[in-house]
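Hi R.,

Here's the input for the acetyl coenzyme *A complex you asked about:
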Amino acid sequence: MKIALAGTGSKLPSKVLTNDDLSKIVDTSDEWISQRTGIKKRHIIGENENLVSLAFAAGKEALESANIEGKDLGLIIVGTSTQDKRLPNTACELQPLLGAKDCACMDVSSACSGFIYALSIAYSMMNTLDIGYALVVGGDVLSREMDWTDRTTCVLFGDGVGAAVLKKADIEEGFLSFDIGADGSKGFALYDNSYGDDRYIRMDGQEVFKFTVRTVPHSIEQAIQKAGVHKDDIDLYLLHQANLRILEAVSKKLDIPLEKLPHNLERTGNTSAGSIPLLLDEVIKKGMAKKGDLILLCGFGAGLTWGTCVLRL
Ligand code: ACO
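And here is the predicted structure with acetyl coenzyme *A in place:
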């Protein structure tokens, strides 16, 4: 038995903030943000929205797309660094909302790599605990953690959540490999000091950029090698949507056509753990990824952490 992707869903919050809107709050411009990042707008939560409400909508859609009900789930994992509350965890809050019962529930905090970390844990737990269906959610509401007077960070991020249902199936492929890692010595490059004097996210953008361009191609190569495939066999590379320049640099370094790296960051901003499942859901809904395609997912972010996996849809 292998582990396969059975369905996906996603939810962006209702409120939209364009680069022009931001230029009224901080000293920035659409030109600066577009040129350095590719981002044009992002969604942020409104009054009646939070991580759980977005995760519920995304999770419900993923269950429907997998054609199962909440009661079929043996596991719910949420990759997030921005829980609505510390206790109970987000997955436990989702469980009754989705009609699931008694299943294992946990959150995983690995920033923008959170969805891939959560997938790898779900993959392992489904095998060791003989779980038939798992719901893996990735998402963040970073707008709550932003210093809206700091132009070096607030222009980059958006809120959003994506979800995937994994199933145990009598197939030959499904998830083929994972490459997961972290370099805690680089934690200073992106952090928030929630319990200290400064509760907002702070970042050394150039350090993050250097790390990404060095580490991401290596992780991608590792995952491809472990999967026993060739880079040209991969139909789509779905990379964390931090920045268009990062996607261009990775595409160049690995000699992969940029067309194989779809992006939606211009519409979503960097949604942290939400970015990969949001993009995965989008390419499936648009018919850009179909059954039988070979897909690579790669996340990277605070920690600094990274995670890549290869799967046959
Ligand atoms: N608008 C206008 N000017 C700005 C803005 C802004 N929003 N932000 C910074 N500047 C200014 C700076 O103050 C600086 O001005 P100065 O020269 O007068 O001092 C100038 O622009 C250049 O600043 P840099 O930080 O050197 O700009 P850089 O070219 O490095 O671009 C960026 C910044 C886009 C953040 C880049 O470093 C980057 O892409 N880093 C990757 C970080 C990232 O993607 N983080 C997301 C979270 S981590 C993750 O998801 C992987």
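One thing worth noting: The pocket of acetyl coenzyme *A is lined by residues 28, 32-33, 36-37, 112, 151-152, 155-156, 190, 203, 205-206, 208-209, 212, 240, 242-243, 245, 270, 300-301 (CB under 6 Å).

Cheers,
M.
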